[in-house]
Amino acid sequence: MATSIVRDRSYRAAPTEPEQLGAALRRRPVVDQACGIVMHVLGCDADAAFTVLRRISQGTNRKLAEVASAVVERRGRGLEREPVSLCGNEG
């Protein structure tokens, strides 16, 4: 019985997985662009730049793709006010 319930849930979730993957692939370029901008403005590596975007996303309760779009749209203006410690460049 439990196996059939799990199988049923998996079956119902299956149509949304390709949609979610497609949406993630469409958002990926803007997130990559935003990471590049953060890397340039704050002088950090790619992992730290993604961490900065993620923390901004969580701190503002906005989706990562929305934060990334805003960073790209503003070409990184205002990011220099982000604490450099977010990039791990603490002296």
Summary?
This protein has 91 residues and is mostly helical. The chain has helices at 2-13, 16-42, 46-60, 64-73.
Provide the descriptors you would attach to this structure in a database record.
70% helix, 91 residues, mainly alpha, 4 helices
Q: What is the helix/strand order? A: HHHH
CATH topology of the domain at 26-87: Arc Repressor Mutant, subunit A
Rg over C-alpha atoms, rounded to the nearest angstrom: 18 Å
pLDDT average, as an integer?
Answer: 78
Low-pLDDT segments, ≥5 res: none
Q: Mind telling me the CATH class of the domain at 26-87?
A: Mainly Alpha
Structural class: mainly alpha
The overall strand count is: 0
Shape: elongated
Ends apart, CA distance between termini: 59 Å
CATH architecture heading of the domain at 26-87: Orthogonal Bundle
Number of helices: 4
Strand content: under 5%
Description of the molecule:
This protein has helices spanning 2-13, 16-42, 46-60, 64-73. The chain contains 4 helices and no strands. The protein has 91 residues and is mainly α. It has a domain at 26-87: Arc Repressor Mutant, subunit A.
